Inverse folding.
């Protein structure tokens, strides 16, 4: 999976990509964490996207460092899903209220 973090938003400027990368690796999740200059989610910063070939892509916003555990939970469920669809978003805790978009794969 590819995880992309907005570098222009607060989390991106604070270097959140590094702890996110480390946490995903510690969980044994195969993820490439990247940053981009702007994800155009300025009305709901900080933004982060998850995508993988053949899977639904997700964009989350209004993220803080406190969302790291929920991001890891999402990543585990996303990796386990054959098409990226989650049947029950309640397992994501507060992250489910921070979803901006779900883009079919």
């Amino acid at each position: 999976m590819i995880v992309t973090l907005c570098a222009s938003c607060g989390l991106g400027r604070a270097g959140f990509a590094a702890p996110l990368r480390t946490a995903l690796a510690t969980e044994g999740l195969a993820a490439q964490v990247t940053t981009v200059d702007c994800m155009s989610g300025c009305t709901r910063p900080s933004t982060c996207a998850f995508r993988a070939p053949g899977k639904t892509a997700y964009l989350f916003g209004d993220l803080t460092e406190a969302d790291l555990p929920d991001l890891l939970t999402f990543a585990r469920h996303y990796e386990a899903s054959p098409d990226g669809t989650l049947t029950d978003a309640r397992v994501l805790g507060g992250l489910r209220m921070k979803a901006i978009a779900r883009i079919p794969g």
Observations:
- The chain has a mean pLDDT of 95.
- DSSP finds three helices and five strands in the chain.
- Strands lie at 2-6, 32-36, 48-51, 57-60, 99-103.
